[in-house]
Amino acid sequence: MQSRPWPTPTDHVVIRRRWTYAPPPWVIYEAVVDEPEQWLSLLTAEAKPQVAASRRPDAVLLRPWVDAAVHAVELVIERDRSRGSQVTVLAYSDVPSLDDETRRSVNYRLGTIFGAALRAWVDEPRG
């Protein structure tokens, strides 16, 4: 993993997930930073994530988002062994661990966002 371009948002990483994508890192970065309205559907009462910091093309820090217990979501975007990308998603909280229900909910939501919605958008051919 590349060096972090900003201080750790909080002391506790409560969820760490990783996805791979066919497009290169710059495509993932642009989708997250410049085009979220194209692929991200917010749930009722879910706040739109704000880009708190970013470093093109390999890091994005989103705040606040996903759940009140999660204070920041960090994306580390790297080239994978093929020509595509690998994205590590870190969810930060002020508490060392989330309760089971919240952890499952946040895990599921991150999966629907990065494992499904973002993947569908970046894999869609656009001319």
Q: Which sequence of SSEs, written as H and E, runs from N to C?
A: EHHEEEEH
What's the gyration radius in Å? 14 Å
Taken from the alpha-carbon principal axes, the silhouette is globular
CATH topology, by name, is Alpha-D-Glucose-1,6-Bisphosphate, Chain A, domain 4
Q: How many beta strands in the DSSP annotation?
A: 5
The H-level CATH homologous superfamily, spelled out, is START domain
Describe this structure in words.
By secondary structure, this protein is α+β, with helices and mostly antiparallel strands. The protein has one domain (12-123): START domain (Alpha-D-Glucose-1,6-Bisphosphate, Chain A, domain 4), CATH 3.30.530. The protein has helices at residues 25-34, 36-39, 100-123, and strands at 12-21, 50-55, 59-63, 72-79, 85-93. Strands 1-5-4-3-2 form a five-stranded antiparallel β-sheet, covered by helices on one side. A hairpin with a 5-residue loop joins strand 4 and strand 5 (85-93). It is globular. The model has no long low-confidence stretch (mean pLDDT 93).
